[in-house]
Amino acid sequence: MSVNPPSLTRRRFLQGTALAGAAVLGAPAVVSCRSPSEKLNVVIIGCGGRGAGNMHEVRGENIVALCDVSEPNLLSAAAKAPKAKKFRDFRKLYDELKDSAFDAVVVSSTEHTHAFATLPALLRKKHVYCEKPLTHSLREARLITEAAKRAGVATQMGTQIHATSNYRRVVELVQSGAIGSVREAHVWVSRAWGRQSREDAKKHGDIVLIEERPKEAERVPRGLDWDLWLGPAPERPFHSVYVPGPKWYRWWDFGGGTMSDLGAHWIDLPFWALQLDAPLVVEAGGPPPHAEIAPASMWAAFHYGPRGDLPPVKVTWSQGTERPAALKEKKVPSWGSGVLFIGSKGMLLADYGKHVLLPEKDFAGFKYPTRTIPESIGHHAEWLRACKTGTPTTCHFGYSGLLTEANHLGNIAYRAGKRLEWEARAMRIRNAPEAEQFLGRDYRKGWKLA
Predict the structure, then answer these.
(1) What is the pLDDT of residues 89-134, one digit of tens each?
(2) How far is 263 from 132, CA to CA, in rounded Å?
(3) How far apart are CA 181 and CA 184, in angstroms?
């Protein structure tokens, strides 16, 4: 089968997808005159878990400051960067460090503090790498993407799977027309973490067995500043059901459940391949929503309008025990997690590391399209190069901010129990204004985004 040349060039993609009026026009024009061999002065906010991994990836730069609410995490990181200044509160870090002291910030704190750790850096025109999901709320996502655009700095969200060769080949196949016009895509993940019965939690390998907020308090672990860990979230007593991560992501006060966590990785693929921006309509369902805990299982559907010469498309999300119809009806191989593109000429099934064109007999002897997306030098390396040379990143906040907003809308539709007609420019839910309460929240005294 012959394949037409891809309609989307590398240059065009890196200019980013545009959401009219949302001020998030793709990759920013990063101005930099550094030599690639010159070292950056980097601040690390969040040193445990993913933070330790991210710090390892930028270890070749000058680590000038470390911040973590956990003293053991901070001391462990300090052993690897003994000359770095140490902080427990990133607000004090930003107050103390002069602009000349640092060039870039790596944010790996808990999700509910991402925006608070990221925005001060952007306002001071510092480069930022932030773990996924980019923010805790949709309003925060819009604020951060707009701030990044104004700053004109190198940004990257920590969706490392985006850098894999497999994702690139899938994007090329879809955009070259290998399976024809795509009007339907389905994403599913087998992880079932969240609110469910203790029996189901054990069956699904959940790391927390709980259905309600604990009434009793526990002693705060030595070295953890619980008040700083809470940050902008409402005050509550310490309990081990919240830490260490990723226990906290199921609690609405601290995270967005699997939808926003794994959605950042898995929905990234159709978002990239189909050049998505803002959905027009979002629906969701599952067990009755709980006021405090995200569900273990749920589904969401995102309806996108035409994008240039691309047709409207429906993208669905299924997690836990939910599955798309094509999988239930055994029309495709039963992979535990995956992304299925359904086109007018065939289907494409993919996961993190592999992909297959279906039906396989129809693609016997298929000739792959010419590669148009270069192999990544590494997700972190891509960001470091952008900081020094201005070369665009692929998960800059202009792109990942839109992805984050879409995932948040899935949660909002679920929590509100409403079909959402979304007006992206105005950040308004036309048909269900009562659902707008979930777009953001008020913050605890002492915490503000400005």
Answers:
(1) 999 999 999 999 999 999 999 999 999 999 999 999 999 999 999 9
(2) 10
(3) 9
